Amino acid sequence: MTTPAPWTFLTNHTHVLLCLQRHPGDTLREVATRVGITERAVQRIVRDLEDAGVLTRERQGRRNTYRLQPSTPLRHPLEAHHTVGELLDLLR
């Protein structure tokens, strides 16, 4: 019997977003550990999410805190009539 290929319904971008929603003060290293990807991959994803206006970064002392922008529409045309906040509410 063959082992099925590992895949999930949600992307790593969604996983990072969920982690930052639940733990906004986490370091990117902590997010990487939670998601199971490299810290460098998390840095790229956070940059993507910032560039898309999905989250903002606030410096607090030596750490960053991330704030989500729940009214941001989802990017794919099939979901563009929904927001990031609706997605996160669904996954809560």
From TrEMBL:
One Pfam entry name: MarR_2
Domain of life: Bacteria
Every HTH marR-type domain range: 12-61
InterPro entries, per database record: ArsR-like_HTH, HTH_MarR-typ, WH-like_DNA-bd_sf, WH_DNA-bd_sf
Location of region: Disordered: 61-80
The protein, known as: HTH marR-type domain-containing protein
Organism: Deinococcus soli (ex Cha et al. 2016)
